[in-house]
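## Example pair
The file below holds two records. Each record gives the amino-acid sequence first, followed by its structure token line.
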Amino acid sequence: MKIEPLGERVLIKILKQEDRTSAGIYLPETAKEKPQEGEVVAIGPDVDEDETPLKVGDVVMFPKYSGTEVKIDGEEHLLIEAGDILARIIRD
């Protein structure tokens, strides 16, 4: 299934969290926090590139309880307003 966001919305594929800490301790599902990182899958037609310079494939950070969660082909995604995206994550 393919979803195209409307207006100033962005479709983000939620990235899975690690099952264990950097020290090697395994985390049960109840101890994990709600994810705040995801990969941009699609961008709505009204997103202003000057205000929100995003591209498909960018990894972004968003607030914990924002947007609308949707399941696409069995994977968790988030439809979120472009202005609600907090940052683009750049890993070296």
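Second record, same layout:
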Amino acid sequence: MIVGIPKEVKNNEYRVSLTPSGVDMLVKEGHRVLVEEKAGVGSGFGDEDYRAAGAVITDRDVVFCEADLVVKVKEPIPDEYDFLRERQLLFTYLHLAANEHLTRTLMKKKVTAIAYETVETLNGFLPLLAPMSEVAGRMAVQVAAHYLEKENGGAGKLLGGVPGVAPCSVVILGAGVVGTNAAQMALGMGARVTLIERNVERLRYLSTILHGNLTTLAAVAQNTADAVRSADVVIGAALVAGAKAPRLVTREMIRTMKPGGVIVDISVDQGGCIETTHPTTHSNPTYEVDGVVHYGVSNMPGAVPHTSTYALTNVTLPYILKLSALGFQAAIREDGELAKGVNVCGGHLTSVPVANSFGLPYVPLTEVA
């Protein structure tokens, strides 16, 4: 199979979808790998590294035109839509439930689109989302600490305080991979952390393994409103796999926050779980609403591309090898986890949450593949 690795073009997105060592494995399996020139520079990999691994370095047109399987990091943006073609196999993060334009484009062009974030194991784990969730969760606390500083628009507070001065209150909405990693970082920096989650068993488990000034609360509206009112930082980490994020914090709740507080909504790429958030970019990351700094960068891990690219390749490569060796049809028949990742096939939506988001018809994958 011919595998294409294009250069990411989203604002300040420096990740690349495969490391040179990942390319080396594909080449040794007999596949041809096309890498767009300078695709890996932002992550610390030069064209010579990919050549040494056996890749062909070429331009963007060739990568998209010749590749049977295009492997990306982020969803195609409008500038890339003209490169998409019928029966092309696209493997990347898509987050379609928050992007109707891209959804309709993939359907119209009859692209076969597999979303990293909806590949799912039998026990409900999302293996391709997990490493970037780990990165984003840890980054969220660093980002919040930065924007709490006065010169960056915050209240001028040190997240962990000092002896004789109280630490900041960090409220985390959701206790999945993102929320757990954010809690670990915030607790490690000395903050007072309130973790809000609907799954009480999950809270029970985390209360035994996380150490520090931690409070756990069941996710009911009053608990959330009370916690937000006293928060210096609110981190949105809620996720419903493949669907729009649930709206957990209202504008009215934001108005009760302390001036100079900070919002970091990691779920913004799925529509956001806080009413006042919208997507921003690394070049223009924040805005203010009701005296509260909002950070809504939808590709946070792109700021640490070296770490992120290695972490992503670690988990995507086995699926890429399978797709390359077996082809799409055989791969999804053999691997139910991969089949759950298929969002669009043959012009049809094969994801129930995405179809529900836009009132579009859903067609089971078994009927179109």
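Notes on the second record: The chain has a mean pLDDT of 96. The chain has two domains: 2-119+305-368, 130-303.
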